[in-house]
C-alpha cells in the first residue's frame, strides 16, 4: 500500500522525535529533508473548544462594530510560527487553510521579519506613494524583483492594484478598451462616444460587449468581477450584474483514468459552448476569463489540453484570454503559476494575481497598454510595501527550493489521499502540486468534518458544495502531511 | 488689504529666519505657533527641470513594464520631510498635492516611523490576516482606536476593504441588499431568485434598481463605482456600465454673496431633479451617493442646506444616503469628516473613506448589516497594518490639534486667495478648511500654471477642466501658505 510505504504511523508524530528527523525519514525520496522551521511546534495542541473563551470574548467585542459570523477563531500571530497558527486561547493548529490560501512562506518567516526592519521598507510604509504620480525611487526595483523575475513568458508588463477583485476588474477594463480600439480602428473617439459615456449610454458605454466566464467560477465580489463569478448564489443575489454569459465548466469524474471517455466528452462540449458564445451571439466577447483550478467553486480541474484548446479558440476569434491566478498562483501547484502546467504555445493575454503574492495586479502583453494615458489608473496603483514583500517571497521560494518541496509533498499527499479513499468516505481526489481537494458525501458531512478537524488541531477549509480544499503554505513538508493524514483518519474512525 | 495684513512678504521666506519664527509672526491670530516639523526644509529648492535626469532615467527603466505617462517625477521619500517632497534629482518641493490628497500628517512623520518599529505592527506586517476568518487579537483595538473614535455620530459599524473604489462598491452592494430585503419582506430567498442570479438574470439579479449619483462625480474606477462616476469621459469610454441615473450637481457662482439668488435656484433645481428620479422613474433608487465636495470633478461645492434637504428627500422615500468622503475625509476641511459642517439632523446611512486614512472602508448604520453571513465579505476585508496607521493618524491629529490648524490656515489661504483675484487671473475661490480650489481661464492656462509652479518648487495638482486644487497635508502651516501664495504671485508676474 502506498499509504503504509510512504507514510509514518500515527505514533511517530506524537512521539518526542523532532520534526526534522520525521521529515527526513518520511520523505518519499528518502533524501535528507531539513525542516524549514526548526523552531515551529512539533504537533498541534488543542486546549479548548474552538473558538475558545478568549476568542469568543474578542469576537463579542468586535461584533459591536463588525459582522463576526464568519470568524473561525481569533489568531495570535505573534505566537504563530511556520505552518502552525496559534489562537487567542493558546490552541496550536496545523494550518492548511492559511488565511484563505494567502500565506505563502509560513507565519513569522524570518525573511519577512527581517524585511520589516529594513530602512527602505520602513520608508515605504511611512510614505505611501501614489505610484502613478510620484513613485518611490526603488519602485522599479520592486517591479523587477517581485514581478518581472516570475513574469509568465512573454508578459513583461504589469499593472498593480490593491486586491484580487480589483486585479480582475482592471484586466476586464483592459480587454474592453483593447477590443473597442480594434473596432474603432485608426479614428479618435467621436464626440458622441465621449458625451454618451458620461450618461452611461451607448455608443460611448458599450452595451454589446461582454466577458465570458464559467459556471462555478469565482473572480471576485465587486460589480464587474461578481458578474463573472458564479460559485454561490448568496454572493450574487440582489446585486445588479451585467448580462455577460457563462459557459459550462467541464465536470470531470475521478479517478481520471477510469473516466477518460466521459472527461474528454465534457471538455469537448464545454469548448463547443465557448465557441458558440463567441461566434453565434450578438454580443462581442472581449475576453474569456478562467481559473486554472476553479477554487471557491469546488476545486474543479480540467486537462491541459482543454486549456490549450480554449486559448486557441480565443486566438482564432480575437478574444483575449485572461487567466485568473489569484488563488492558484505563487507556487501552490508546484510551478510558480498554475498555467505553466498547460504548456501553452504562446502566453495568455493577461494573468491576474493577489493572495499569496501579498501584492495584487495583473500581467499583460505590452500590446494591451491603452493608447491614451489615465485610462488604467487610480490613486495608489498598488502598494510598494506589499511589492517589497512579494520580492522577498520570490527570493524565499528560490532560496529554499520551495517549488520542489511543493511537488514532493503534493505527490505524497495525493498518493496517500487516493489510498485513503478505500477506507474512509473521501472521494474524487484531485490536485496539482499541493493544491488538492477531495469530496465528502454531502455538505453537512463536509462541514462536520471541517469542525472536527479544527477541534483535533488542523485548521482546514471547504469550497463548493461538499468539497474539502487543502491550501497549505509552500513550506508544508512531509512531516506535516503525516499529521494531516493521521488526523483525518482519526476523525473518520 | 487682508493680503498684506496677514501675509509675510516674499523676502521673509527666502531669508534665513527659521520657519518656526515665520510661522509665529505670520499667524492670523498672532498666537505662538510651533512648527510641526522643525527639521523640514525651510523653503523649496529646484536644481533641475522637473522631471530631472535622475527621474527620467528611472522612468525610462520603469516604462518597460508600466505606463509612466502620468508620472510627475520620481520621489525620494527617505529625503522627504513634513510638507516637503524631495525627488530623485534632489529637487525639494513644497507639496500641496500630497500623493493625490493621500498623505495626512507629513512625510516621515516621527509617529509613523515609530509605529514601524513596534512589535505588534511588525507582526501584523509579516502575518497578513484574513480578517473575516481569523482576525489578529489586536484587530478589535485598531477598529476602536482608528475607526470608532472618529465614527460619525450614530454610525458604529464599519466594513473595511483595500481601496476607495472597493469602499464605494461595497456600500452600493449594502444598499442593494437592504433595499431588496425590504421589498422581499419576511420571506426567504425564492429558489427562482437563487437560481436566476447565477445566470445574472432577474429576479435574483435585479434589473430595476440603481444608485443615483451626480454629474461630475467621482466615486472610483471599477465597474460599479465607475458607473456612478462622471468626471472625465476618458475614464469611462469603452467600459460597460449600468444604466444608473445622474442628477445635475448645482453649479454655484462665486463669490457666493454676489450670487445668492442664482445659487439657491440651482440647488433647488438639483433637488427637484433628484426627487423626480426617485419618485417618477421605473427603477428603484436604492441609494443616493454624493461627495461633500466633488473633488476630481472640479471641486464643486454646495451649501449645507442643500445636503440637509437631499438627506430629507432620501429619508422621505426610503432611499439610503451615502456620503463619499474618500477625498474629503480625515481633516482636510477643518472637521474630521467634511459632512460635519452640514449639521444633519440624523447621520448619513453610510460614509466611505480611504486615501488620507491609509485604511479604506465605510461606516454603516447597524441596521444595514445583511441578515445572512458572507454577503459582505472577501479574503482580506481590509489591512490590519493600515488600520494601525489610521489609529496613529487619529492620535496625531488630536495630539497636534491639527483640525484647528487646518481651520486657521484654511481661512488664511481663502482670504489671501480671494484678495489675489484682484491682481491675478485666478477666480472662483472656494473652499472648506484647507480643501480649497480656484479656476484659471481655461485648461491650457491651468496646465501651464501647474507646470510652472512645480518648476518653481511647489507640487500642485488640478481637477475638473480648468481648476487648481490645493490638497495640503494637515500639517500645512501659515509659513507654508506664504510660500505657496508668493510662488503663485511670482508665477503670474
UniProtKB/TrEMBL annotation, chains A, B:
Reactions that this protein is recorded to catalyse: 4-aminobutanoate + 2-oxoglutarate = succinate semialdehyde + L-glutamate
Broadest EC class assigned to this enzyme: transferase
InterPro entries referenced in this protein's UniProt entry, alphabetically: 4NH2But_aminotransferase_euk, Aminotrans_3, Aminotrans_3_PPA_site, PyrdxlP-dep_Trfase, PyrdxlP-dep_Trfase_major, PyrdxlP-dep_Trfase_small
Keywords recorded for this protein, A-Z: Aminotransferase, Pyridoxal phosphate, Transferase
Known EC number: 2.6.1.19
Key word Transferase present: yes
Family: Belongs to the class-III pyridoxal-phosphate-dependent aminotransferase family.
Name the UniProt record assigns to this protein: 4-aminobutyrate aminotransferase
Organism: Helicostylum pulchrum
Amino acid at each position: 500500500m502506498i499509504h503504509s510505504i510512504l507514510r509514518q504511523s500515527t505514533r511517530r508524530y506524537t512521539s518526542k522525535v523532532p520534526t526534522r528527523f520525521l521529515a527526513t525519514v518520511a520523505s518519499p525520496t528518502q533524501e535528507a529533508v531539513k525542516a524549514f522551521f526548526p523552531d515551529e511546534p512539533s504537533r498541534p495542541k488543542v486546549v479548548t473548544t474552538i473558538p475558545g473563551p478568549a476568542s469568543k470574548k474578542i469576537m463579542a467585542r468586535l461584533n459591536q462594530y463588525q459582522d463576526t459570523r464568519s470568524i473561525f477563531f481569533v489568531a495570535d500571530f505573534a505566537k504563530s510560527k511556520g505552518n502552525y497558527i496559534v489562537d487567542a486561547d493558546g490552541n496550536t493548529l496545523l494550518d492548511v487553510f492559511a488565511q484563505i490560501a494567502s500565506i505563502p512562506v509560513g507565519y513569522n518567516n524570518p525573511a519577512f521579519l527581517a524585511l520589516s526592519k529594513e530602512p527602505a521598507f520602513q520608508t515605504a510604509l511611512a510614505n505611501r506613494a501614489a505610484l502613478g504620480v510620484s513613485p518611490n525611487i526603488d519602485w522599479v526595483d520592486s517591479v523587477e524583483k517581485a514581478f518581472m523575475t516570475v513574469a509568465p513568458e512573454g508578459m513583461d508588463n504589469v499593472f498593480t492594484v490593491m486586491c484580487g477583485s480589483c486585479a480582475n476588474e482592471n484586466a476586464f477594463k483592459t480587454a474592453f478598451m483593447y477590443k473597442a480600439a480594434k473596432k474603432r480602428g485608426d479614428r479618435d473617439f467621436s464626440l458622441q462616444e465621449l458625451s454618451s459615456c458620461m450618461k452611461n449610454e451607448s455608443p460611448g458605454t458599450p452595451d454589446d460587449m461582454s466577458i465570458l466566464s464559467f459556471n462555478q467560477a469565482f473572480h471576485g465580489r465587486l460589480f464587474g468581477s461578481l458578474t463573472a463569478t458564479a460559485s454561490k448564489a448568496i454572493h450574487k443575489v440582489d446585486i445588479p450584474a451585467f448580462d455577460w454569459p457563462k459557459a459550462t465548466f467541464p465536470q470531470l469524474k475521478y479517478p481520471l483514468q477510469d473516466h477518460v471517455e466521459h472527461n474528454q466528452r465534457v471538455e469537448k462540449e464545454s469548448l463547443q459552448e465557448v465557441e458558440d458564445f463567441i461566434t453565434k451571439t450578438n454580443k462581442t466577447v472581449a475576453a474569456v476569463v478562467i481559473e486554472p483550478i476553479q477554487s471557491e467553486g469546488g476545486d474543479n480541474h480540467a486537462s491541459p489540453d482543454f486549456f490549450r484548446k480554449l486559448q486557441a479558440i480565443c486566438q482564432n476569434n480575437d478574444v483575449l484570454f485572461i487567466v485568473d491566478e489569484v488563488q492558484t498562483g505563487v507556487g501552490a501547484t508546484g510551478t510558480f503559476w498554475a498555467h505553466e502546467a498547460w504548456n501553452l504555445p504562446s502566453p495568455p493575454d493577461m494573468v491576474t494575481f493577489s493572495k499569496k503574492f501579498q501584492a495584487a495586479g495583473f500581467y499583460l502583453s505590452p500590446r494591451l497598454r491603452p493608447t491614451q494615458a489615465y485610462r488604467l489608473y487610480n490613486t495608489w496603483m498598488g502598494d510598494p510595501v506589499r511589492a517589497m514583500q512579494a520580492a522577498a517571497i520570490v527570493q524565499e521560494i528560490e532560496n529554499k527550493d520551495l517549488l520542489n518541496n511543493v511537488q514532493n509533498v503534493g505527490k505524497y499527499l495525493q498518493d496517500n489521499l487516493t489510498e485513503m479513499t478505500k477506507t474512509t468516505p473521501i472521494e474524487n481526489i484531485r490536485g496539482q502540486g499541493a493544491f488538492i481537494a477531495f469530496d465528502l458525501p454531502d455538505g453537512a458531512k463536509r462541514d462536520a468534518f471541517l469542525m472536527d478537524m479544527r477541534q483535533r488541531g488542523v485548521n482546514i477549509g471547504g469550497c463548493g458544495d461538499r468539497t474539502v480544499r487543502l491550501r497549505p503554505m509552500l513550506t508544508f513538508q512531509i512531516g506535516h502531511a503525516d499529521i494531516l493524514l493521521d488526523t483525518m483518519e482519526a476523525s473518520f474512525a
